[in-house]
Amino acid sequence: MSFPLPRLPLLAIREMIPSMDTREIFLFSLLSKKSQNLVMSSIPKNSLSAKVTFKKNGFLFELMPKGVRNQAANNRPVVPYRTENETIFMRFGSYSPHVQCYWTGTFEIEESIRKLFYRFSKTFKNSKFYMKFEDGTREEFAMKILRFTWENGFPMDEIEFCLKYASPETFQELLNGCNEHHTSLETNSKIPEEFKCTPPAGGYKFESLSVDYAPWVNLDDFLQCRKLFFVIEFPDVTPEYLNGLLKQIVNLECKIERFTFGMQFIKPSYFPEIVRGLSDSAIQQNGNWQGLQFARKDGLKMLVTFCNNHLELDEDYL
């Protein structure tokens, strides 16, 4: 005999939903508008994580409990399900409460993706969202989706913006929007060489910012960020500037705790000048790898290294 869940009082259902596993919650949200609203109002804030991937010809939505790593469900059986307007396909992780739901199409793709995203994002609006825009996603459509999430206050954890090219206007809006809403950003988009970044008052304050093509970067605009990764075409800076930056980190005058800078103009012989005055410890060397241990004013031990044209800073875990 099946359990008549829809016949229970609303308060009882709301009490039961948080005790369901992720698959049960997701499937229950698809039953009706009423069940969707019940899920929306019953899930505790940040108890679930949602990953949304926008593709050229489709859409992927993944749901899992907070703290559970994304586990591939690609080898699991596909279960079709008809929503109001679209047929979606679902897979479920075999050993974890991981839900994978996808849709592909050839007609009115953006409109179908928009409707599905609006539905799932509203249903699971209390979840932590991770969003990825793959290359082939139209730039204007990607920004329309992002404006929707920002305007509705969805708790965004990270955005991965993988469009091959982006206009200066889009990139500026992307930077400012992520910064304003405390969202980490990773992007490998190329933008026109004439792009000049206009930072907010006080500079950017990203938890994490990763930019592949960074000729436009002025490091002084990012001193209040915790993690910075500028990999390719990083602008030319002097060893004296880098030494001053590291001393600001030592004295807790900026918030940077970790960085990776791709530096084609810095020679290995510059490393002693870059780390001058940071520590009484000797520079360690192993082949073309150089490193120096030092401590911040608060006692946190750090390690700065230079190898293969990359200057890196991280906490010293040894």
Describe the structure.
The chain has 318 residues and is an alpha/beta fold. The chain has a single domain, classed as Leucine-rich repeat, LRR (right-handed beta-alpha superhelix) (Alpha-Beta Horseshoe), CATH 3.80.10. The protein is 26% helix and 28% strand. The protein is built from eight helices and 15 strands. The protein has a 15-stranded mixed beta sheet. Strand 14 and strand 15 form a beta hairpin. Helix 1 crosses helix 3 and helix 2 crosses helix 3. The longest helix is centred in the middle third of the chain and has 15 residues. The termini are far apart. The model has no long low-confidence stretch (mean pLDDT 88).
- Which residues form runs of ≥5 with pLDDT under 50? none
What count of structural domains?
1
> How many helix segments?
8
Strand order of the largest sheet: 3-4-5-2-1-6-7-8-9-10-11-15-14-13-12
Rg, alpha carbons: 23 Å
